[in-house]
Amino acid sequence: MTLEQGIGVSNAKIILIGEHAAVYGKPAIVVPLTAVKLAAVTTPIAQGQLIESNYYTGPLARAIKSFAGIKKLIQTILERFNQQQANFKLTITSQIPAERGMGSSAATAVAVTRSLYDFFDKKLNRATLLELANVAETVTHGAPSGMDAATTSSTAPIWFVKGHASYNLPINLKGNLVIADSGIRGQTGPAVRTVRERMADFPQETSVFMDQLAELALSTRKAIASQQLAQVGQNFTTAQLILQTLGVSNETIDHLVFVAQRNGSLGTKLTGGGRGGCIIALTADQANTDRLLAALAAEGVTQTWVQPLAHLNQTINQEYDHD
């Protein structure tokens, strides 16, 4: 049985603190950006299996290499339902920029999975959702941590440790999180390799940095619980200094961090893989948020987002059952 349309929605994510250290089993705090959405809509058509998106439009069978993960995911779901010959059009509409550390590929996998399960009127639980999203992410990233899928499918911040179950981390702070696109695509692969090489060449020193990032994540969790916004900001700034030392920042990121720190930010750092992508800055109130946004705009930043940190504590989405 198929419905007239199947709808799936997901959202962007941002690593608050703990990037790179998370690769080595250290904790990270990851926040969903609930205002930055991605939607997938599946509708029946007379013939074929078509994809329409910003990155590829055409038959599923001819999907370009960068779409290989989503193609594999769709084929896996169709096989699971014995619907390999089903005729449909899958339309993907996204507000999430690619290669900015905001979870675009995982958000696509999550929304596509939800859309197809809805279209074929099948039950979907969270474990299955994350398992299937991992199918696409494995093709796209090789060995995904699961962080992106867990957060882009959620409306709650999570405490993430690789290889362990994630759990909700309620955030109810009075400030805002400002996210600014540097205009440079993030280079996660090269950045991760740089840290790995540093770990091989200078294991003791690099391990100390990883331990320090882990301590900052723990300190941030405590500061969130006790609503110490200034401490969270201070931890951002300290983490950025470590990430700079590890070689995963760049001149553009460093400059935007400098600008933010002098224009209302309590603390600023890169987020995600680094060497491009986005910065995040913490502001205490709307006046400082506006001041920061104006300063970033004056530097040529064209894309920014503001995520209020008040009541960012909803529970993780439970998938709807279609009975």
Automatic annotation (TrEMBL):
The keyword Transferase applies. Residues 221-300 form the GHMP kinase C-terminal domain. Keywords: ATP-binding, Cytoplasm, Kinase, Lipid biosynthesis, Lipid metabolism, Magnesium, Nucleotide-binding, Transferase. Transmembrane segments: none annotated. One of its GO terms (cellular component) is cytosol. Pathway: Isoprenoid biosynthesis; isopentenyl diphosphate biosynthesis via mevalonate pathway; isopentenyl diphosphate from (R)-mevalonate: step 1/3. InterPro entries: GHMP_kinase_C_dom (IPR013750), GHMP_kinase_C_sf (IPR036554), GHMP_kinase_N_dom (IPR006204), Mev_gal_kin (IPR006205), Ribosomal_Su5_D2-typ_SF (IPR020568), Ribsml_uS5_D2-typ_fold_subgr (IPR014721). One of its GO terms (molecular function) is mevalonate kinase activity. PANTHER family: MEVALONATE KINASE. This is Mevalonate kinase.
